Amino acid sequence: xxxxxxxxxxxxxxGTSPADDTPVELAAVGLRFDPATGTHDYFQKIFDTCIDxxxxxxxxxxxxxxxxxxxxxxxxxxxxxxxGLEEAVxxxxxxxxxxxxxxxxxxxxxxxxxxxxxxxxxxxCTLRLAQHVWPDAPSFGLQTLRYWRxxxxxxxxxxxxxxxxDAACSARxxxxxxxxxxxxxxxxxxxxxxxxxxxxxxxxxVPLGKHKGKLWSEVPEDYCRWLVDKAAAGSGEPFDPAVVxxxxxxxxxxxxxxxxxxxxxxxxxxxx
Length: 272
Prior knowledge:
Low-confidence stretches: 260-272
CATH superfamily of the largest domain: Ribonuclease H-like superfamily/Ribonuclease H
CATH topology of the largest domain: Nucleotidyltransferase, domain 5
Radius of gyration: 22 Å
C-alpha cells in the first residue's frame, strides 16, 4: 500500500491579482491516504493563521471571506506566516500540494511548492482534475462538488472561503477523484495527479454567460469567437483557460452538431 502525503492549501486574499493584492489568511490540512482504496490514517489541520496584509481589506474581498481589519490586526505578516507554515508542514513530508484552482494559490505563493516539496515542487488542482474526471458535474465550484460528492458533510455552520475548511475540502475531494480514476483503470500516483492537473480538458457544457448549461455543440460560432477574442485581448475578468480552449475546439468543429430533426409527414413537401 503506497500512501500519498497530500497537503491541502488555501489562501484568502485582498483581491484576485497577485501583483496588486496580498494574502490575509493561510491554512494547510494534511491527509495521508491510499489512492486506490481511499483509506487514510491521518487527516488533520496542520496550520491556520490570519495574516496582516499591511493595507486595507476592500469590502468586496471581505464579502467573500468575511475577514476585516479587526480580524487581521496584530497577526503575523506574510513572511512570518510562510515560515510558520513551512515549520509545521515539513514533518508531514508532503509528496504534493493540493488546492481547488491551484493556479490561484500558486500565483500568490509562487515559492511554496519548492519550499514544502524540495526538489520536486508539485501542485495538484482539484478543479482541473474534476473537469477531467467528472465532466457531467453540476458545476466545478468547490462547494458544489463538496455537496455533490458528499464530502465534509455535517459542517453546516462553516462558511465557504474559510481557509482551513476549503483546504480540508480540497484534500478530501482529492481522495474522491483518486477513487474515480482508480475505478476507471488508472494507477494513481502523485505524478499522474500533477500532470493531469496541467492538462486542459474540453468541457462538456458552457459554464458561464448567456449560454450557460448548454452543450458546446449547441453554442453559436460567433459566441465562441467572442470568448476567444476577449481572452486574447486580456480585457475584463480572465476566463478559465479550459473555457477558452473548449471554445477554440468548438471553432475547429470538434463537437458534433445536433442532427436536424427529421421532416415530419404532411408538412407540405412533395409526396411524389
